[in-house]
Amino acid sequence: MNDNNLPEHVAANREYWDRYAHEWVSAxxxxxxxxEPTWGIWxxxxxxxxxxxxxxxxxxxxxxxCGTGYVSGxxxxxxxxxxxxxxxxxxxxxxxxxxxxxxAPFELIHGNAEAVPYPDASFDFAISEYGAAIWAExxxxxxxxxxxxxxxxxxxxxxxxxxxxxxxxENGAPSEPYLHRSYFELYRQDWRDVEVDPGGIEFNLPISGxxxxxxxTGFEVIDYLELKAPDQFDETKFSIPADWAKKxxxxxxxxxxxx
Length: 259
Ligand SMILES: C[S@@+](CC[C@H](N)C(=O)[O-])C[C@H]1O[C@@H](n2cnc3c(N)ncnc32)[C@H](O)[C@@H]1O
What we know:
The chain is an alpha/beta fold. It has helices at residues 8-20, 25-33, 46-49, 70-77, 89-101, 132-135, 138-148, 162-166, 207-217, 242-247; strands at residues 38-39, 44-45, 60-64, 81-86, 107-110, 123-129, 149-160, 188-190, 201-203, 219-227, 236-237, 240-241, 251-258. The radius of gyration is 17 Å and the shape is globular. The chain starts with 7 loop residues before the first helix and ends with a strand.
């Protein structure tokens, strides 16, 4: 794909992730080595939040924003035939090295999860952990995930909870027990020029906005989780202080089924 034809957020996020991919290699290695999946910034165990079916034999899966590819690696161990798409060539280099090291080859696509080069109804299961879930535009990637799924197929994704965004000060400092941003105007967060820990361009919606989008797209909600930091944490992770995340939800999980 020609970089000049990419939407602004996709081009900006590509540059961001290509620049910082080297900082994610060791975390990717550790995740690939895990016998059991853990999820999100607080490493919550699969036994608690059930993102995957235990037996994924014969399931054709797509990971939207696969990064270093460990989620697809975990799904392959459960029997899935995996495909991963990611916007960053540098992240995909790590994914390729790790899949080879673990003798778990799967198809990697360099591209935008808002426009996946696969026919309609190709997949049984789609997933994103902090991939398309936060970096892609909801109005584009949610209908695209729906298109890619077979009827009855499931989309599960985990990302930042909207409350964690609206409690982030304008300068990008960690979440506080105060409301700093509009909840109703929550959509695009441009973190490129904040003083503290600049990032890329992310997206989120009020809960009612997510529900409306799922309804209009043709997804039914199977489950919705609001994740809490476990007691043992006391540090700040990815701009979320653990003590904050014991009182308010820092992450959300949506589990959807294509109608
Ligand atoms: C935090 S990683 C999440 C992936 C994986 N769980 C991990 O931690 O390695 C975010 C990934 O989303 C990818 N990404 C961002 N925007 C994307 C888009 N529009 N389409 C596909 N991937 C995207 C980035 O390139 C990055 O590799």
